[in-house]
Amino acid sequence: MCRLCVPGTWSHISGQISTDAAGGCKGTVGTEVDFDMAVKAARTCGINLIAQMNAACDGDLDRVVRVVKLGAFVQAGPDFFDIPKVINGCSDLMVEVFGDAGRHARSAVGVYRLPLNFSVEVDAIVEVR
């Protein structure tokens, strides 16, 4: 059994950026990146989080008891304020995949810069058995 998936534990998953096989979504939301692309970037972060959950739980996502909390960051331009709406791309995915167990607390923060100029980054705390 993976040490992250000891029954009744919380796994802390480091921030996952909006990267994918095509290179992902880079740039500042509200200037270089439009709203719809930013929502897709947040969803990509969610897919990357689920991949990390899957790896930590030896390929058995049924071991995920609940998504406890997401910490989300959007590289936002000076006039962009829909940060929570962007992060709905990730939050909605958690509910799609895990149902009620995917409902979570979260923070959604606009920041000046993210690593490697990616548009969105999301970390997670997940309860596993």
The gross shape turns out to be elongated
Number of helical segments? Answer: 2
| Count of extended strands | 4
**What's the SSE pattern?**
EHEHEE
What is the helical fraction, as a range of percent?
25-40%
SS content category: alpha+beta
Largest sheet entry: 4 strands, mixed
What fraction of the residues are assigned to beta strands by DSSP? 25-35%
Task: Tell me the span between the first and last alpha carbons.
Answer: 10 Å
Report the average pLDDT across residues. Answer: 95
- The spatial strand order of the largest sheet comes to 1-4-2-3
Please, what is the oligomeric state? single chain
Low-confidence stretches: none
Gyration radius over CA: 14 Å
Q: What is the structure about, briefly put?
A:
By secondary structure, the protein is α+β, with helices and mostly antiparallel strands.
Keywords, separated by commas or semicolons:
2 helices, 4 strands, about 30% strand, about 130 residues, elongated, 4-stranded mixed sheet, alpha+beta
Structure description:
With 129 residues, this protein is an alpha+beta fold. Helices cover 29% and strands 29% of the residues. The protein contains two helices and four strands; from the N terminus they run E-H-E-H-E-E. The protein has a four-stranded mixed beta sheet.
Detail the topology: elements first, then pairings.
Layout (H helix, E strand, L loop, with lengths): L8 E9 L17 H22 L7 E12 L7 H16 L6 E7 L8 E9 L1
Parallel strand pairs: 2-3
Antiparallel strand pairs: 1-4, 2-4
Helix pairs in contact: 1-2
